[in-house]
Design a protein that fits this description.
Distance between the termini: 25 Å
CATH topology of the largest domain: Nucleotidyltransferase, domain 5
Shape: globular
Number of helices: 8
Structural class: alpha/beta
CATH superfamily of the largest domain: ATPase, nucleotide binding domain
Oligomer: single chain
CATH architecture of the largest domain: 2-Layer Sandwich
Radius of gyration: 19 Å
Helix content: 25-40%
Number of domains: 3
Length: 294
C-alpha cells in the first residue's frame, strides 16, 4: 500500500470506492462529489484477514463497472480503493529511536509488527506513517497498516479488470479518522457487517485502533469494546475522552447513544460528514472525500 501521506501530495484520483461485504460505496469528485452505493449479492465478498476475500470475482467486477460507469477508453482510470477494516491490521508503535533511512525504517516496522498480525508479515503489504510528536513526548509514534498480499492482490485485480488503476489504497477506519475533527481526545465506534472498529485519536494523532468480529451487534458487545478502550485512555494517556462518536448502528443509535453516555460518562454524538450521513458501508469514503474536497 502506498504511504498514507501521499493522499495530500498527489492530486486525488477522480474515482473513489469503498468495499464491504454488503456492497460498493462509490464517489466521483466534483462540486459536490457524486456518491452512491451498489449492493452486492451475499457471498461475493467475505471479509477476512487470513483468507481470500473475493469469492466471486466476476460479480465484483460487474459491480465495480456498474458503480463507476464506463467511458469506452482502454486506459485504466485512476481510483482510490478503501478496504474493509477487518481484512487489514492497523497498529500504533512507539519507538525510542527510529532510523532515518527508509529501507531501515521498513525493516524495523516489519519486525515490530510481526507479532501483532495473524498473517505472515513477510508476505504482506505494509505501509507506515510517522506521526508528529505531541506534548513533549520523547518517543515517536508510527501508524502501521498491513494486509496479506494475496488479499490485496485479488481486490486490485478486480478493479483492473473493471478498467481502474487503484493507485491509492487505505482502510475504512483510516478514512474515518478525517471526520474526527478538533484537537481534543475523541473515540469513534463503528459497526460494519459483523465487525466493530474502535479508534482513539488525540490532537489529530491516532493512539489506538481495534477491529473485532462479533456474531451480532448489541449494547453489551459495544460496551465490551468501549470499557477497556476507556481504561486504556485513562491509564496510558492520563485523561478521559472529550467525545464518543457512533456510526453504523442504524435504528439502535439512539439507544446506544443513551447507554454509552450513562455507562461511560461521556458526550456521545453520531458521526457526521459534509457529504452525507456516514453509515456502516461508506464512512471511510466520506472521510476520504472530506480530506481532499475543498
Amino acid at each position: 500500500m502506498r504511504r498514507l501521506a501521499r493522499i495530500f501530495e498527489d492530486p486525488p484520483p477522480e474515482y473513489v470506492f469503498e468495499l464491504s461485504g454488503a456492497g460498493i460505496a462509490y464517489a466521483r469528485h466534483g462540486h459536490p462529489p457524486q456518491t452512491g452505493f451498489r449492493r452486492l449479492e451475499p457471498g461475493v465478498i467475505a471479509v477476512s484477514p487470513l483468507e481470500d476475500n473475493v469469492l466471486n470475482a466476476e460479480a465484483l467486477v460487474a459491480g465495480v463497472k456498474a458503480a463507476g460507469g464506463t467511458n469506452g477508453s482502454r486506459k485504466r482510470k485512476p481510483a482510490a480503493l478503501i478496504l474493509p477494516d477487518y481484512c487489514a491490521r492497523v497498529t500504533v508503535l512507539d519507538f525510542d529511536d527510529f532510523p532515518s533511512e527508509p529501507g531501515e525504517q521498513m525493516s524495523l516496522v516489519r519486525f515490530r509488527t510481526k507479532k501483532t498480525v495473524p498473517f505472515d508479515i513477510d508476505s504482506a503489504a505494509v505501509s507506515y506513517e510517522v506521526q508528529a510528536k505531541q506534548g513533549g513526548r520523547k518517543t515517536l509514534e508510527v501508524v502501521v497498516a498491513a494486509v496479506a498480499l494475496e488479499i490485496i492482490a485479488r481486490y486490485e485485480a478486480a478493479f483492473r479488470a473493471a478498467g481502474y488503476h487503484p493507485g491509492f489504497i487505505t482502510t475504512s477506519a483510516l478514512g474515518v479518522l478525517r471526520l474526527l475533527r478538533g484537537s481534543g481526545l475523541t473515540v469513534a465506534a463503528r459497526w460494519n457487517g459483523h465487525t466493530m472498529t474502535v479508534s482513539v485519536q488525540q490532537g489529530g494523532a491516532l493512539k489506538l485502533l481495534r477491529c473485532v468480529e462479533f456474531p451480532e451487534v448489541g449494547i453489551q458487545e459495544v460496551l465490551a469494546m468501549l470499557h477497556p478502550t476507556f481504561a486504556f485512555i485513562e491509564d496510558e494517556l492520563g485523561t478521559r475522552p472529550d467525545k464518543l462518536f457512533l456510526c453504523g448502528f442504524g435504528d439502535f443509535t439512539g439507544l446506544f447513544r443513551a447507554r454509552c453516555a450513562e455507562d461511560l460518562d461521556v458526550a456521545v454524538e453520531p458521526l457526521q460528514s459534509r457529504f452525507g450521513t456516514p453509515g456502516p458501508d461508506n464512512a471511510g469514503l466520506l472521510g476520504y472525500l472530506d480530506s481532499v474536497e475543498v
